[in-house]
Amino acid sequence: MNMTHYMELLAANQPWNLLLFMAVPVILAETLAITELAVLFGGDTTPRPVRAANRWSGILAGGYFAVVFVTLMLTAAIPLTLGGGWRGPIDVVAVGFYLFGIVPLGGVALLDLGLIGRGRSERQRMKLHVAFVALFLVTAHVAMIAGMLDPTLIGGDAAAAVQDMHGMHGTAQ
């Protein structure tokens, strides 16, 4: 079976790529999502440690993913684009949606750091925070689902994908 670059990245260099590119961002995002629910439903009665976990998981997730984004843009997305190495539309969707995660996670971090949304009410900032968290969950799941597909299903080149995979041997391309 042919793999998308997204899935190949996670499968290469075990267990490190899986931990760095999937486990850490997902653990931070899930912590953010769970504490977000507690803050929403608890309101002013939400315990301080839960509020702190929400804020810090958002800041850490945004900062961490910014490093992941820059790393993958420089080592994978730009070289693949310039070299014509994409394995088809599914491959582009998987990697593209994964990288798009910087928008909502970066937004959460900037909001939690007080760099955006200053002129908004607490309720408006909370709505924006929830929207960013929801957007990240959607984009991450689209990336995961597309990443698990065979990239040759809609327009990908099977021969190139197989040759590409045999030449990779654990690189993050």
From TrEMBL:
<feature type="transmembrane region" description="Helical">
    <location>
        <begin position="64"/>
        <end position="86"/>
    </location>
</feature>
<dbReference type="InterPro" id="IPR046547">
    <property type="entry name" value="DUF6803"/>
</dbReference>
<feature type="transmembrane region" description="Helical">
    <location>
        <begin position="92"/>
        <end position="116"/>
    </location>
</feature>
<keyword id="KW-1133">Transmembrane helix</keyword>
<protein>
    <submittedName>
        <fullName>Permease</fullName>
    </submittedName>
</protein>
<feature type="transmembrane region" description="Helical">
    <location>
        <begin position="128"/>
        <end position="149"/>
    </location>
</feature>
<keyword id="KW-0812">Transmembrane</keyword>
<dbReference type="Pfam" id="PF20617">
    <property type="entry name" value="DUF6803"/>
</dbReference>
<keyword id="KW-0472">Membrane</keyword>
<feature type="transmembrane region" description="Helical">
    <location>
        <begin position="20"/>
        <end position="43"/>
    </location>
</feature>
